[in-house]
Amino acid sequence: MQKRSSISPLFFIFLGIALLIFFFLSKHLGFIEFLTRPVQKTTFSALHGKKDAPTEIEKLRAEKNSLLMQVAKEKELEKENQALRDQFQTEKPSSRTLLPARVIGASENEIILDKGESDGVKLGDVIVVKDNLIGKITKTSSHIAAVSLIAHNKTVFTAQTVKTSAIGVVNGAGGGKMTFVTDLSEKLEREDLIRTKGDVDGKDSGFPPNLVVGQIISVNKKSSALFQVAEVKSLVDFSRLEIVFVMTGN
After folding, report:
1. Which of 18-32, 65-79, 126-140, 177-191 is predicted least confidently?
2. 158 and 234 share a domain?
3. What is the pTM of this model?
4. Which three-class secondary structure state does DSSP give residue 38?
5. Total domain count for the chain?
6. Which of 175, 129, 132, 184 is nearest to 155 (CA)?
7. Are residues 102 and 38 in the same domain?
8. Residues 127, 123: Cα–Cα separation, whole Å
9. Is 165 a member of any domain?
């Protein structure tokens, strides 16, 4: 019994000390948190990396994109300058004003240009690349024009072969294809060039002479037929056109 009663005061002393520590910590917890906050912030930064790192990456990415855009613009300008040099080194056409225009849209039988009535473009204007015939303006607005390609299935005009001087009619067949129809008595040869003969009428409509239409790639001649037909392919890939020239001197 004496041993049990000697332990009891010591127990109460420790209990009192524990309660004092608890109340002290509860009262001053805000102060302790304030003291330990810099350590917590440093630890969080060490675990998750610097906050400014993503911003630097974004800056580098923006600079890279800006450089790529600048290079692309320089390449486009170089293409345009080369097209201008090539065009004006061509002897034909020489008596008309040529307006460079960029192709901004295309379909199977039509291309759309970034030039329109405000630039002096009008219905019937002829489109060329060097001395190659491309088509004719069929629709216009203030700043845009539509070109019907010579391969359009509604296109019909007079033409002549360069080597054999055979006269016939070019018909657009659609999808970039054309035919040259002439009399059986005319001589046609594969790889001979076909050029416009000139069919401009009193209303300034039609194609001027000596523009290259394309090259004969095959000839279909039958003695039983009334005409012979040659398949013609343009020297220009219409699907790859970027810059063309409008003959605005009509």
Report:
1. 18-32
2. yes
3. 0.65
4. helix
5. 2
6. 175
7. no
8. 11
9. yes
Residue 55 lies in a domain: no
27, 120: one domain: no
Domain span at 33: 2-48
Of 112, 179, 163, 167, the C-alpha closest to 140 is 112
State the average pLDDT for the chain: 80
35 and 99 share a domain?
no
Is 210 within a domain? yes
Beta-strand pair 243-247/126-129 = antiparallel
CB atoms within 10 A of CB 129: 21
- CB contact burial 58-89 (16+ within 10 A = b; e otherwise): eeeeeeeeeeeeeeeeeeeeeeeeebeeebee
pLDDT number for residue 62: 75
CB atoms closer than 10 angstroms to residue 144: 19
Which of 83, 195, 96 has its CA nearest to residue 130? 83
**Can you give the CATH number for the domain in which 142 is found?**
2.40.10.340
Tokens of 56: 């630097």
